[in-house]
Amino acid sequence: MKKLKLLTLLLLALSSFTLILLIKSNSPDAKQLLTLSSPKGKVADQHLAGETATEIPSPIDAVVAEAESTTNQTSTDEAPTLTKHHVQIQAIPALSQLPELPNGCEAVAATMLLNWAGLPLTKEEVAHALPTGDMPYENEFGAFVGANPKDVFVGDPFDIGYGIYHTPVAKLMNQWLPGHIRDLTGTSFEDLLGVIAKGNPAMIWATEHMDSPYFDLEWEDETGELVPWYQPEHALLLTGWDDNYAYMNDPMTGEQEAYPLPSFKEAWEFMGSQAITIIG
């Protein structure tokens, strides 16, 4: 009887020792034994349960984590600086309208454009060639009447005058360079800048110093059409631009001037988006 008990104790001890070895090796057999011996199928060893819940990340998890880390780092980086635009057509001498042509800015701007194209015309020759019409005056009925700048120069570029618009100027220039004159009037501001970027200067209508235009006078032309006039109307030669400024040969100063790009855009569009260029 004593031998039987001793044998039983020995077998129990051996079984316990085997189970301990299985648990330490994290064997699935040990987990199964523990599950079977625990109530409701729960793992009896809480330490083992904790180790089982914390698994080593798989290689694909590590790749995803690294990608997320890289994305977060990239999103905090500063945006790259945009490349600055800078277009400037060289070797176009600026001409002054003063003192010979106090109101002849259009003739001088056209002369600079024609000179760039290789025609050795003077500003006086161009001014004399412009069609002219009457300054506004009050007729016998008390109405103001006068010429239309859409057709002729209103007044005299050598003396007192208002000015002239793109159509008659382009028509005159086409007589000297038939087939090479392009009236860009009505184009977008971006397309106008694109013309300069391709290496072609453009005669443009805006205001002196890009000041805000203001209404000055209104009259009727010979057909009865109302002609509103805004001051200080001015014509210049656009030769370059960058992200902040437009560069122009200004007949009023006789120099190349830099005017803020937004101010130029506003004045140019207000004055009808008028522009003329010459193509090869």
Describe the 3D structure.
The structure is a single chain. The chain is of the alpha+beta class. The chain has helices at residues 2-24, 28-37, 46-53, 59-76, 105-116, 123-129, 166-176, 189-197, 261-270, and strands at residues 86-88, 132-133, 137-138, 144-145, 153-155, 161-163, 181-183, 202-207, 214-220, 226-231, 233-242, 245-250, 255-260, 275-278. It has two domains: 17-54, no CATH class; 87-278, Alpha-Beta Complex (Cathepsin B, Chain A), CATH 3.90.70.10. The protein has nine helices and 14 strands. The strands form four sheets. Strands 1, 7, 8, 11, 12, 13 and 14 form a seven-stranded antiparallel β-sheet that branches. A three-stranded mixed β-sheet has the order 2-5-6, with no helix packed on it. The protein has a two-stranded antiparallel ribbon with strand order 3-4. Strand 9 and strand 10 form a beta hairpin. Helix 5 (105-116) crosses helix 6 (123-129). The longest helix has 23 residues, at 2-24. The chain is globular. Residues 1-5 and 19-83 have low confidence and may be disordered.
